[in-house]
UniProtKB/TrEMBL annotation:
Alphabetical GO biological process terms: carbohydrate metabolic process
Gene3D superfamilies linked to this entry: 1.50.10.10, Glutaredoxin
PANTHER family: SPERMATOGENESIS-ASSOCIATED PROTEIN 20
Identification of the protein by name: Spermatogenesis-associated protein 20
Matches recorded under InterPro entries: 6-hairpin_glycosidase_sf, 6hp_glycosidase-like_sf, Ssp411, Ssp411-like_TRX, Thioredoxin-like_sf
Pfam families in the record: Thioredox_DsbH
Signal peptide stretch: none
UniProt lineage: Eukaryota, Metazoa, Chordata, Craniata, Vertebrata
Domain Spermatogenesis-associated protein 20-like TRX: residue ranges: 7-168
C-alpha cells in the first residue's frame, strides 16, 4: 500500500471505523471536548458524520467525498468535523437520528448532521452524492450553502435550533401518564398477532415485501403466542408463520450456504440477494431462535441451522480469549490482484467456476451427470448468473450466482435418480470444495471491536442452543465469553460495565484511553445472557453477577418520575436528550428485554420490587402496546410473561447424578416461555439458598432427584418422573 498523504486525529482511536478515516484529507476529530472547545472558540459550526465499519453507503460517501481533497478543504475551512462510530456511541447516534427522522421523514447511515457550536442540530440527512445531480443536491453545494447561512443569518439559525430541540424533547418523551397500570396482556397479544398476520408473506415468509430483515423479535413473539394458545387455530397459525419464515430464510441466499451464518438482510422478498455484511447481533439472536424452533417442532433441520450459525461465529468472529467481534463487511476484493472492492465478492460464484470445481461423474445418476450438474440444479445456479439487474444497481453481481436452495432434497434426488442419503453426501462434498476455494479469496474487512451488548446476545445464543440441543461445548463457549466480559468489560471497583474493547497489537485485548461506560443495552443484554448461562450451566456465580448488575442498572438508568429506563445515564453535558427507545427492530430494545429480566431476577432473589418495576415499564409504554404492538413485539411478548407469572422449576438433586441430569434434560427439551429453572443442590450456604429461604423446605423424595413447580414461592407436590414433569411444563 502507498504511504498515506494525510493523517488526522482519528489515528489515535481504537474503533476500526474511525481508523478507516484516519488518512482522509478531512481534519476529523473524535466526539469529545477538544472538538467542542474548538467549535466554540472559533465560532464554527460542527459537521457530524456517523456510521459504522460494515456500512456500504458509508464506504461510498468516504470514497466520493471524504477522500476528495477539494471537498476536504471546504470542510476544514468552514466546520469542525467530527466522526462517530454508532456502535461505540449509540447514545450520540440516537439523539441526532431522532432529529434526522423527525425533520426528513427518513433516516439511516451514513448520517450527516450540522450542529451549532453548542451541539444543537439544525440540518441533517444521510448519504449525499459529491456533486449536484438531477434529483439531489450534492455534498459540496450543501456544505457551501450552510457555511453561507451561518455567516449571513447566525441568530436565526441559533433560534431555530433551540425550537427544534424543544420540539424533539416533547416528541421523544415516553412516560406514565397518571395512575396507569400495565395494559391487558390478552388484548396486546391479540393485536400484535393480528398485525403480524396481516403483514405476513404467505409464500416466502417474513413480514414485509422487501427489503426483508430476519427480525427474530417477531418470531419469538409468535412462539410465545403459540405457547399460550396451543389449542386454537390462531396458535397453530402463529407457529406455522414462524417456522415457515425460518425455513425460507435458511434456504435463501441470506443464509451463507458455504461459509455459514446469516447476512444482514435480503434486498428482495425471496430472501435471495442479501446485503452481504454479517452482524454479531443477528447470529446471536438467530441461534437462539432456531434452537427454540427445534425445541418446539423436534425437526432436526432447525437444530442443524443453529449449529451452522455457531460454527461460523466460533470460527470467524471469536477472539482467542473468548470474546466475539462485531461484524464482517459486505465488500471485498474479488481477487488478490483487484484494485477495487465489490459487494458480495467473497460469497458469489460464476457457473463456470462451479463446473470446473465439480467435474466428477456421479455414480448411479442419469448418464453423464456431474457433481456440478446436481449442485447447480439444487442451488439455483444459472449460466448467466441468477441475480436480477433490479437487485444489482451497481452491476457488481453481473454474471454471478448467489446460492439459494431452489428444490427440496426429494425433488433434486428424483430429478437425477439418486437416493436421498447419497444426495446429501454429494451436496456436502460440493460445499466442502467450494469452501476450500473460497478460503483462497481475499477476506472482507473484520470489525474486531468487542461490544458488551452484542457479546451478551451471542452468549445467550450459545447458552440456549447448548441447553436445547444438549451440546455441552456451546455452554462452555458461552461461559468463556462471560468470563471474558468479566475480565475486559467490567470494572469491579465501580461495579460498572464498559461498552467496548478492541483487538490490538499482537492480538492483545486493548481498551481506549478513556473507556466508554456501558449503556442501558449493555446491562440488559448481559444480564439476560447471565440468566441464560445459569440455566444452561447451573453455575451460581453467573446468577450472583446478574443480580449485582441489575441493581447497578436501576441506579444508573431508572426514571423514577416517568418510569422505564433511559438508554444512557445522566450527567453527560454533551448529550442533549436522555431518550428511551421505543422500537424492537433488528435488535430488541432494552426496555423490552428488561421486563423479562426483572421478572427472572425477582424469581432468583425474592425481591418483589423488581416485579413492580416490570409492570411500571409496561405502563409507560401502554399506549404504544395497545395501538401498534407490532413495533414492540418483544415487549408485547413480555406482557404475557408478566401476566401468566413465571413458574420456578426447582430440581432438587445432586448435580452429578444421572437422575438429576435426566430431569434437567427434560426441562431443557421443552419450550416454556414462562419458566425459570433452578437447581437446589442442598448446599444451604450457597448463593441461591441465601436468597430464597423456601428452598430449604424442598427435599428429594425417596432420595431421588425431585422437581417442584413453584409460583409466588408456593410449590406443587414433588415430581420424580421426567414424563410427569414434561406434562406439567406443557399444559
Amino acid at each position: 500500500p502507498s504511504i498515506p498523504r494525510n493523517t488526522n486525529r482519528l489515528i489515535n482511536e481504537k474503533s476500526p471505523y474511525l481508523l478507516q478515516h484516519a488518512h482522509n484529507p478531512v481534519d476529523w476529530y473524535p466526539w469529545g471536548q477538544e472538538a467542542f472547545d474548538k467549535a466554540k472558540k472559533e465560532n464554527k459550526l460542527i459537521f457530524l458524520s456517523v456510521g459504522y465499519s460494515t456500512c456500504h453507503w458509508c464506504h461510498v460517501m468516504e470514497e466520493e467525498s471524504f477522500k476528495n481533497k477539494e471537498i476536504g478543504e471546504i470542510m476544514n475551512k468552514n466546520f469542525v468535523c467530527i466522526k462517530v462510530d454508532r456502535e461505540e456511541r449509540p447514545d450520540v447516534d440516537k439523539v441526532y437520528m431522532t432529529f434526522v427522522q423527525a425533520t426528513s421523514g427518513g433516516g439511516g447511515w451514513p448520517m450527516s448532521v450540522w450542529l451549532t457550536p453548542d451541539l444543537k442540530p439544525f440540518v441533517g440527512g444521510t448519504y449525499f452524492p459529491p456533486e449536484d445531480g438531477v434529483h439531489r443536491v450534492g455534498f459540496r453545494t450543501v456544505l457551501l450553502r450552510i457555511a453561507e447561512q451561518w455567516k449571513e443569518s447566525k441568530d436565526a439559525l441559533l433560534e431555530s435550533s433551540q425550537k427544534i430541540l424543544e420540539a424533539l424533547l416533547h416528541r421523544s418523551e415516553i412516560r406514565v401518564r397518571g395512575q396507569e397500570s400495565p395494559p391487558p396482556s390478552k388484548e396486546v397479544m391479540a393485536t400484535c398477532f393480528q398485525q403480524l398476520s396481516n403483514s405476513y408473506d404467505e409464500d416466502y415468509g417474513g413480514f414485509s415485501k422487501s427489503p426483508k430483515f430476519p427480525t427474530p423479535v417477531n418470531l419469538n413473539f409468535l412462539f410465545t403466542y403459540w405457547a399460550v394458545h396451543r389449542t386454537t387455530p390462531e396458535g397453530a397459525r402463529a407457529l406455522q408463520m414462524a417456522l415457515h419464515t425460518l425455513k425460507m430464510m435458511a434456504h435463501g441466499g441470506i443464509h451463507d450456504h458455504i461459509g455459514q451464518g446469516f447476512h444482514r438482510y435480503s434486498t428482495d422478498k425471496h430472501w435471495h440477494v442479501p446485503h452481504f455484511e454479517k452482524m454479531l447481533y443477528d447470529q446471536g439472536q438467530l441461534a437462539a431462535t432456531y434452537s427454540r424452533a427445534f425445541q418446539i417442532s423436534g425437526d432436526e433441520f432447525f437444530a442443524d441451522v443453529a449449529q451452522d450459525i455457531l460454527l461460523y461465529v466460533s470460527r470467524d468472529l471469536r477472539d482467542q480469549v473468548g470474546g466475539f467481534y462485531s461484524a464482517e463487511d459486505a465488500d471485498s476484493y474479488p481477487t488478490t490482484a483487484s484494485r477495487e472492492k465489490r459487494e458480495g465478492a467473497f460469497c458469489v460464484w460464476a457457473a463456470e467456476e462451479i463446473r470446473a470445481l465439480l467435474p466428477h461423474p456421479v455414480e448411479g445418476a442419469t448418464e453423464g451427470t456431474t457433481l456440478g450438474d446436481v449442485f447447480m440444479y439444487h442451488y439455483g445456479v444459472k449460466e448467466t448468473g441468477n441475480v436480477s439487474p433490479m437487485q444489482d444497481p451497481h452491476q457488481e453481481l453481473k454474471g454471478k450466482n448467489v446460492l439459494i436452495v431452489r428444490c427440496s432434497l426429494e425433488l433434486t434426488a428424483a430429478r437425477f435418480g439418486l437416493e436421498l442419503g447419497q444426495l446429501g453426501a454429494l451436496l456436502w462434498e460440493g460445499r466442502r470444495r467450494l469452501s476450500a476455494v473460497r478460503a483462497q479469496r481475499p477476506r472482507p474487512h473484520l470489525d474486531t471491536k468487542m461490544l458488551a451488548a452484542w457479546n451478551g446476545l451471542m452468549i445467550s445464543g450459545f447458552a440456549q442452543a447448548g441447553a436445547a440441543l444438549a451440546e455441552q461445548k456451546y455452554v462452555s463457549l458461552a461461559a468463556q465469553a462471560a468470563a471474558f466480559l468479566q475480565r475486559h468489560l467490567f470494572d469491579p471497583t465501580s461495579g460498572r460495565l464498559l461498552r467496548s474493547c478492541y483487538r490490538g497489537k499482537d492480538n492483545m485485548v486493548e481498551q481506549s484511553a478513556v473507556p466508554i461506560q456501558g449503556f442501558l443495552e449493555d446491562y440488559v443484554f448481559v444480564i439476560q445472557a447471565l440468566f441464560d448461562l445459569y440455566e444452561a450451566s447451573l453455575e451460581q456465580g453467573w446468577l450472583e453477577w446478574a443480580l449485582q448488575l441489575q441493581h447497578m442498572q436501576d441506579k444508573l438508568f431508572w426514571d423514577p418520575k416517568g418510569f422505564a429506563y433511559f438508554s444512557s445515564e445522566a450527567g453527560d453535558p454533551s448529550l442533549l436528550l436522555r431518550l428511551k427507545d421505543d422500537q424492537d427492530g433488528a435488535e430488541p430494545t432494552a426496555n423490552s428485554v428488561t421486563v423479562t429480566n426483572l421478572l427472572r431476577a425477582a424469581c432468583y432473589s425474592g425481591h418483589t420490587e423488581w416485579v413492580e418495576k416490570a409492570g411500571q415499564i409496561l405502563a409507560a409504554f401502554s399506549e404504544r402496546l395497545q395501538k401498534i404492538p407490532i413495533t414492540l413485539p418483544e415487549m408485547a411478548r413480555a406482557t404475557a410473561v408478566f401476566h401468566h407469572t413465571l413458574k420456578q422449576v426447582v430440581i432438587c438433586g445432586d448435580p452429578q447424578g444421572e437422575d438429576t441430569k435426566e430431569m434437567l434434560r427434560c426441562v431443557h427439551s421443552v419450550f416454556s416461555p414462562n419458566k425459570v429453572l433452578m437447581l437446589a443442590d442442598g448446599d444451604s450456604a450457597g448463593f441461591l439458598y441465601r436468597q430464597l429461604p423456601f428452598l430449604a423446605s424442598l427435599e428429594r423424595k425417596d432420595g431421588k432427584a425431585t422437581a417442584y413447580l413453584c409460583s409466588n414461592f408456593a410449590c406443587s407436590l414433588p415430581i420424580t418422573s421426567p414424563q410427569e414433569l414434561r406434562g406439567m411444563l406443557c399444559p
